[in-house]
Write a structure and sequence with these properties.
43% of the residues lie in helices and 14% in strands. It is of the alpha/beta class. It has a 7-stranded mixed sheet, sandwiched between helices. The chain starts with 11 loop residues before the first helix and ends with a helix. Bound molecules: (2S)-2-hydroxybutanedioic acid (LMR).
Length: 392
């Protein structure tokens, strides 16, 4: 059987983790995979999560199965943070379930589109490479549109044209901190998108993987909330990987907004059946820790404090890099000021990216995406110097 398979290349982004780990030079700079890093270059467990884990260890009495929907109290505890005051208006039309990471939620949302007879999915380009892979793996077709306008702002017109024409069954949108560009729709563009989705027939799937790492928990939810207030139905794929630092614990949730109370259980039963056939049940530990953090005032405040500190550090690295724009003209450093979250795209050729890695020990995605959080006050001068050299 295995002889019939074609070899597959490893996921390029995840492969960077291994390449970087194998590089024994002392002063390498890892701007590859999207994990937050402190000013010391570490990715520690949040204080509040550590405290919740201690409590879990002491108090958890059973690890018996929960079911395909996972920890429903975790799913509920997140809702005020994601949906804000609008949650009350959606009462009876909104439900959720736990998934293995945000990826599990994206997969499930797209599998629901397929189960409902959908075939074509609008996808902005560039996007997180795994979006296209999941669409393809499900046998759906990606209909591509440009996410970024030439002047470094989001190109809402491109997606609006598709939505108005109904070229696809669904659209996959990034709520905030767009991966890989960092360029988000403005509030006005989100409002336009919400209206177009309400007027049209394209089903919105909103991927919320970085809430709190852009402008703030509330600010980063603006677009999502505008859409949910306008449309009859939608899916929201949520990840706690970044904003709770639970990457490898795979903590996510899928929320479904249905047109009315009678359709909601049908949607939920399909999502449960698909989850059962895919992974049966999501892993418990990380979601249980999030539930404990959100259910405890002091831990919750501490989590928000740590998140704010992370967001501020990312912003200050963006500013520092932008202020060095004249050292490497043409690379697009000044545009970092317009972006949000971990990622930005630099204008570098594949050869320049290889030179950065081989000659300077700087690791970044082949697309030119950098993880801004991989920069620190200590390594930033070296990075700017390397950019200046390869772009001279
Ligand atoms: C990234 O884009 O770096 C992260 O979302 C990690 C991943 O799974 O690709």
């Amino acid at each position: 059987m295995f002889d019939r398979l074609q070899p597959q290349s490893p996921d390029a982004l995840l492969q960077l983790i291994k390449l970087h780990a194998a590089d024994k030079r002392a002063d390498t700079i890892d701007l590859g995979v999207g994990v937050y890093r402190t000013a010391d270059g570490g990715t520690p467990v949040f204080r509040a999560v550590k405290a919740a884990e201690k409590r879990l260890l002491a108090e958890q009495e059973s690890k018996a199965y929960l079911g395909p929907e996972g920890d429903t109290e975790f799913v509920k505890a997140l809702m005020p943070h994601i949906f804000g005051p609008g949650e009350a208006r959606m009462h009876g039309r909104l439900t959720g379930m736990q998934t293995p990471g945000g990826t599990g939620a994206v997969r499930l949302a797209l599998a629901l589109v397929k189960a409902a007879g959908g075939r074509r999915v609008l996808l902005g380009t560039p996007s997180w490479p795994n979006h296209a892979q999941i669409i393809e793996d499900l046998g759906l077709e990606a209909v591509l549109f440009d996410h970024v306008a030439s002047e470094g702002t989001a190109d809402a017109a491109a997606v609006l044209t598709h939505i108005a024409a109904g070229t696809a069954d669904a659209v996959l949108l990034h709520a905030c901190c767009h991966n890989p560009t960092g360029i988000d729709y403005s509030a006005e563009q989100w409002n336009e998108l919400a209206q177009a989705l309400a007027d049209g027939s394209v089903f919105p799937i909103v991927d919320v993987a970085y809430q709190g790492l852009g402008r703030g928990m509330e600010e980063d939810a603006h677009g999502l909330r505008a859409i949910l207030a306008a449309v009859p139905e939608a899916a929201v794929a949520y990840s706690c990987d970044k904003n709770f630092g639970l990457y490898r614990d795979r903590v996510g949730a899928l929320y479904m907004l249905a047109a009315d109370e009678t359709v909601l259980p049908v949607a939920a039963s399909n999502a449960n059946a698909l989850a059962r056939a895919n992974w049966s049940m999501p892993p418990d530990h990380g979601a249980a820790a999030v539930r404990l953090v959100l259910g405890d005032g002091a831990l919750s405040r501490d989590w928000q404090e740590e998140l704010t500190m992370m967001r501020d550090r990312i912003r200050s690295m963006r500013e520092a890099l932008a202020s060095a724009a004249d050292r490497a003209p043409g690379v697009g450093l000044a545009e970092l000021l317009h972006g949000n979250g971990l990622f930005a795209m630099l204008k570098l050729s594949p050869e320049q990216i290889v030179r950065l890695r081989e000659e300077h020990g700087v690791y970044m995605a082949a697309s030119g995406r950098i993880n801004v959080a991989g920069l620190t006050e200590a390594n930033l001068p070296k990075f700017v110097d390397a950019l200046a050299r390869v772009s001279a």
